[in-house]
Design a protein that fits this description.
2 copies of one chain form a homodimer. The first copy, chain A, is α+β, with helices and mostly antiparallel strands and about 190 residues long. In chain A, the strands form 3 sheets. A 7-stranded antiparallel beta sheet of chain A has the order 4-3-7-10-11-6-5. In chain A, a hairpin with a 2-residue loop joins strand 5 and strand 6. At the A-B interface, strand 1, strand 2, strand 5, strand 6 and helix 2 of A face strand 1, strand 2, strand 5, strand 6 and helix 2 of B.
Chain lengths: ~190, ~190
Amino acid sequence: MKKSIGARPIVYPTPVFVIGTYDKAGKPNVMTAAWAGICCSSPPCVSVSLRKATYTYGNIMEQRGFTISIPSQDHLKEADYFGMVSGKKEDKFSATGLTPVKSELVNAPYVKEFSLVLECKVIHTYEIGLHTQFVGEILDIKAEEAVVGEDGLPNIEKVKPFLYVPEHRIYYGVGEFLGKAYSVGKAVQGT
Amino acid sequence: MKKSIGARPIVYPTPVFVIGTYDKAGKPNVMTAAWAGICCSSPPCVSVSLRKATYTYGNIMEQRGFTISIPSQDHLKEADYFGMVSGKKEDKFSATGLTPVKSELVNAPYVKEFSLVLECKVIHTYEIGLHTQFVGEILDIKAEEAVVGEDGLPNIEKVKPFLYVPEHRIYYGVGEFLGKAYSVGKAVQGT
């Protein structure tokens, strides 16, 4: 028997992305965002929704580009901190000791110490409600060699990303390998 | 040292959502989608990107509503199957033995056996590229009583959702609790 939970923004899993931008003066900033995900395969695009009140919102409107640095469990506290304070008041790179690196493709910084980074050019801006959705074309992904497998792709077990649970506001890790897509479902087709 | 991986649609984690719709004749259909996520808090909205070639695309354009049933690890093979075949050719509910239930809020069915369900009304349709993005306002979430905690919210450890790894096309479970958001980051602020 199902019961009503109400109209709430809950889905599982929800990502934890660290959005990198420069302000007008060239100061690098990062904030954590969870209302985000891939939204197109060709061109490859990712969407990130932000409130207008954030410093990052203004920076993206100005620069038309951003990065996504995907934190590993090893940087849980830094990623959480990036979502707790505003870049209007704090220099988050200085506070954490992490290093901003300027993207060569967009005018935005990424976090050097994070192993997986997307460089995104804004191609659409959509007003949805409290949040504005930016659609960024993924111009390139850069990964630390240590997390790249023999197939040339990042390995999720080496990247060790984590996920956010809305409403409960807690973090969970990624668990165990369960199976191959477009494959385990053949058990149904065969019936 | 970071190396270029190329322009690809990769982020971690990526969700596995089962999208429920009716066609013109009222036949229930489900498909699996991973290019999706929460995109606004108020009104609570979720975005789902689909190719025009899918049966679900036409159904949503017709009905202006859809459901998202979040599969648990226990239904891994059914969720994978839902992404392998088209509703144009197959009756996926019959093939899996799962049960369509008509939403009382939108003209779309959800999967009775899946413990967490969102009922969504389309409020925006955005053309991005190969994929069209539907923004659905979450009118209600319904959850099996067995997965709802004492706080009235679904418990992710009971829902047991899983995630999709793009490009590798594999599934992973949700791992262990790591910490509280807006809390573990205080360790940085205190420094």
